[in-house]
Amino acid sequence: MFYSLTGKLVHMEPGMIAVECGGVAFHCSASMQTQKNMPRIGETVTVYTHLNVREDALDLFGFATKNEMNCFKLLTGISGVGPKVALAILSEMTPETVAMCAASGDSKSFTRANGVGPKLAQRIVLELKDKVKKMGAVSAEVSLGGGDVGVVSASKNAEQAVQALCVLGYSQSEAAQAVSKLDASLPTEEMIRLALKSMASRF
Questions:
Q1: What's the whole-number mean pLDDT along residues 62-81?
Q2: Which of 96, 63, 121, 125 is nearest to 197 (CA)?
Q3: pLDDT at 178 over 80
Q4: How confident is the model over 151-173, as a mean pLDDT?
Q5: Is 100 in the same domain as 153?
Q6: How far apart are CA 110 and CA 174, in angstroms?
Q7: Which residues pair with 50 in a beta bridge?
Q8: Which of 14, 59, 110, 147 could covalently link to 52 via disulfide, CB atoms 3.0 to 4.6 Å apart?
Q9: What is the Cα–Cα distance from 176 to 24, expressed in whole angstroms?
Q10: Is 116 helix (H, G, I), strand (E, B) or coil?
Q11: Using CA atoms, how far apart are residues 183 and 13, in angstroms rounded to an integer?
């Protein structure tokens, strides 16, 4: 219903921001990561939004980036992960970190968020990996430059980077194309960061 809001930041407190558009201030629940990216009170801001419809309420969530909004939607699609837990995860982890941890099977990192125990953390990793498998990212073939030394580990890094980008909502072909242009010797996290930067500049 709402894709984004552009207006004046009029209020901010832990867990929420208020953006005034045309004389109406919209209350948006927000993660700590989003709040860190907000300007000063009174300055203009654009936030990407998601409206959560319940029987007794309409809850609006605001995000500093599209990646964070997409990651929030993926997280809330997992059984046992409601909006509050998803925001808690995104307060502790960036979307890139969520994607990396899901791709590498690191469930322990998710337990840093309030409301996420070991069992839920394992479910999050398994279901996010499942989503990637359904997109076909696991079998993605990425053509990398460089010699034969370290080709196996480099291919693994590239495959994980492609999987992580797919977790964030990019298509397999977009992710593979972006990763294929990178140095094969780079660590996975650096590949993800650089691929996101290059794709953001294209759109």
A1: 90
A2: 96
A3: yes
A4: 75
A5: no
A6: 27
A7: 61
A8: 59
A9: 43
A10: coil
A11: 42
Q: Report how far residue 53's alpha carbon sits from residue 13's, in angstroms, rounded to the nearest whole number.
A: 23
Q: Report the C-alpha gap between 26 and 18 in whole angstroms.
A: 5
The pair phi, psi for residue 61, each rounded to 5°, is: -115, 135
User: Residue 107 maps to which CATH number?
Assistant: 1.10.150.20
Q: Do 92 and 38 touch, CB atoms closer than 8 A?
A: no
Higher pLDDT, 139 or 189: 189
Would you say residue 140 has pLDDT above 60? no
Same domain, 73 and 129: yes
Residue 134: which pLDDT band, with cuts at 50, 70 and 90? low
- pTM for this predicted structure: 0.76
CA distance 108 to 54: 31
Residue 20's pLDDT is: 97
Q: Are the C-beta atoms of 168 and 179 separated by less than 8 Å?
A: no
